[in-house]
Amino acid sequence: MLSEDLEWFTTLAELERVGAAAERLHIAQPTLSRMLGRLERRLGVELFDRRGKRIVLNEFGRIYYEHARRAHAELDTAAKSIADLNSPANGVVRLSFLHSFGGWLVPQLVGEFRRRSARITFALRQGPAEMVATDVLDGTSDLGIVSPRPTMPGIGWRGLLRQRLALAVPVDHRLANRRQVRLDEVAEEDFIAMHPGFGMRRIVDDLCAAADLRPRIAFEASDLITVAGLVAAGLGVGVLPEEDIGPASAPRVAGVKADVRLAGPVLIPLADAGATREVGLVWSASTSAPGAARRFRDFTEDWAQRRRGIP
Questions:
Q1: Of the N and C termini of the chain, which has fewer Cβ atoms inside 10 Å?
Q2: pLDDT > 90? residue 244
Q3: Contacts of 185 by beta carbon, 8 Å cutoff, 6+ apart
Q4: What is the pTM of this model?
């Protein structure tokens, strides 16, 4: 039975008068009688004993009423839960994002948003750019924060910020004191890069292709912190966003001396055209996001405008 069927049946069972139940339900008495007749024929039993103008639940009817009452209550609870989840003031935002954004961008966005909307919670998921795009398309996540802009069809996009890219070299590298550098100046060196499928790998591949450079990949990693660490260890050079990685990127651990860690790599701004990384918010363009996700999406637009100095 649908929720509407449960409502008329439980109302009729509790009032035990067809006329009174029809009046409460705002339907005609003959219509209600026909609805009851159809239900009894479908079940193969009568649910009420007729006693003049009154009807009284019989043994079959009492069994059916108990189950119908509980089912009606469960469906009401489900409807309320769905409404709460879809409410802009409540619910959960399912957010996927790149690992590199977990150190600053996502905490900054979520922290500021939660100070305004404390009743909204987040389910966070990290992975490569392809996973983030797939998550929003298949409904695993409501929103994603990714770079570069996905090429898959069916994805909505809103730019949040643009990061300058730099060549990362060890502190004793021959170019460490340069104020700017081109990629073709390190054409013969080993590169540290992200694994294929990660957004930063796609950006680096495109930059190298534009510079007519075929990099010799010595190591591949799954996060930018590891890329920075391998570069700092003198195992190659890499390309990193300027503001994501710095000498103090490694967390301090109680009881561990700071000097046991490598100094971070030196970041030299790239002079190559297009040496930037655009970061944006993505969502499925073919489905309607829950209210909480729409509220967070609107917040990120305001955040991006404030960052760009737009009143």
A1: C
A2: no
A3: 175
A4: 0.66
